[in-house]
């Protein structure tokens, strides 16, 4: 990013916090780990492994960015179609191909485990949760 910016250019990025702060993703990750081998489940949680705010800030400063700021933001997420919609979101995950290739018995076990783990987030036909990110902004010295 630093190389691509012109002097004085600004960068902004939202970086997901740890998976245990994301109730939907944590539930899906736990269901996956319950039903598929670890090497197949691991890629699902990869987007949540970025450093904490201080490490993120340090990374940007080490890459010669200035005016680095990191703030935590929380956004509500609602799957209006309930658990079925929440499960269908796996098709947009890093393990979509793995899910598509599961045998019918494993897929049924995964859906059951996911439904059980998502049930605390299910109310009035919807799955309600939140997404927690670190929002970083920085500038390339000009």
SSE layout and pairing:
Layout: E1 10-16, H1 23-35, H2 38-45, H3 53-62, E2 65-79, H4 82-88, H5 96-100, H6 104-118, E3 122-123, E4 126-140
Antiparallel strand pairs: 1-4, 2-4, 3-4
Helix pairs in contact: 1-2, 1-6
Can you give a write-up of this model?
The chain has 142 residues and is of the alpha+beta class. It is 41% helix and 27% strand. It is built from 6 helices and 4 strands; from the N terminus they run βαααβαααββ. Strands 1, 2, 3 and 4 form a 4-stranded antiparallel β-sheet that branches. A hairpin with a 2-residue loop joins strand 3 and strand 4. Helix 1 runs antiparallel to helix 2 and helix 1 packs antiparallel against helix 6. The longest helix has 15 residues. The chain is elongated and about 60 Å long. The model has no long low-confidence stretch (mean pLDDT 95).
Q: State the total count of DSSP E strands.
A: 4
Number of helices: 6
* Strand coverage percent: 25-35%
Taking all residues together, what is the mean pLDDT?
95
Q: Return Rg in Å.
A: 18 Å
Order of helices and strands: EHHHEHHHEE
What is the structural class? alpha+beta
Q: What attributes does this structure have?
A:
142 residues, alpha+beta, 6 helices, 41% helix, elongated
């Amino acid at each position: 990013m630093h190389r691509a910016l012109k002097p004085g250019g600004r960068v902004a990025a939202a970086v997901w916090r740890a998976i245990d702060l994301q109730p939907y993703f944590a539930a899906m990750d736990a269901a996956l780990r319950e039903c598929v081998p670890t090497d197949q489940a691991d890629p699902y949680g990869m987007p949540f492994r970025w450093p904490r705010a201080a490490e993120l800030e340090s990374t940007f400063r080490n890459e010669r960015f200035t005016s680095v700021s990191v703030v935590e933001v929380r956004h509500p997420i609602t799957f209006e179609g309930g658990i079925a919609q929440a499960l269908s979101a796996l098709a947009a995950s890093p393990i979509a191909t793995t899910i598509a290739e599961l045998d019918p018995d494993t897929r049924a076990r995964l859906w059951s485990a996911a439904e059980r783990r998502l049930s605390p987030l299910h109310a009035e036909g919807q799955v309600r949760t939140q997404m927690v990110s670190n929002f970083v902004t920085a500038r390339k010295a000009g």
